[in-house]
Amino acid sequence: MAEQQKNNPLHGITLEKIVTDLQVHYGWSELGYMLRFECFINNPSIKSSLKFLRKTPWARKKVEDLFLSTFHK
């Protein structure tokens, strides 16, 4: 398993850390504008965002891609 993950830049980074880091960097309003997810627009919170992203793989992928393009250039 570790062999498969060695080239994964997200290995060991929790979804909570990804969302938290993006929120600190951009803020909720900018995240809502960039990604257009309700969980970032209406009463945003880390908890509600995690709940949505864990159930919605395509949205999680967008958030992970934004994290990588922001912090792993």
Automatic annotation (TrEMBL):
InterPro entries: DNA-binding_VF530-like, SAP_dom_sf
Protein name stated in the entry: Uncharacterized conserved protein
Pfam families cross-referenced by the UniProt entry: VF530
Gene Ontology molecular function: DNA binding
